[in-house]
Write a structure and sequence with these properties.
The chain has 83 residues and is an alpha+beta fold. It has one domain. The chain has one helix and three strands; from the N terminus they run E-E-E-H. Strands 1-2-3 form a three-stranded antiparallel β-sheet, with helices on one face. A hairpin with a 5-residue loop joins strand 2 and strand 3. The protein is elongated, with a radius of gyration of 16 Å. The model has no long low-confidence stretch (mean pLDDT 81).
Length: 83
């Protein structure tokens, strides 16, 4: 068994799980999950019709945008605190 990564964001594991998530009340779909390796926290969840490269790219785009925004906020707060 390998050790977890040392810091949040170093490795994000992704996986898709097709299932009857809505117990017959809707069509079967796939849950795409992004999990941070260091913390085990879920970073993105998305229901999609099928597990495709394009579906992953859409979630990855949203994931990267949220990471970028978080990084900008952290940098702004650090700059504000240094004055």
């Amino acid at each position: 068994m390998r050790e977890r990564r040392g810091q949040w964001g170093e490795l994000i594991q992704i996986d898709g799980s097709p299932h009857d998530w809505f117990e017959g009340r809707s069509e079967n779909c796939t849950l795409l999950v992004f999990i941070d390796d260091a913390t085990g926290k879920l970073t993105q969840l998305r229901f999609v019709k099928t597990e495709t490269t394009l579906a992953y790219l859409h979630v990855l785009h949203d994931h990267n945008c949220s990471l970028w925004c978080t990084r900008c906020l952290i940098q702004r707060q650090a700059q504000h605190l240094s004055y």
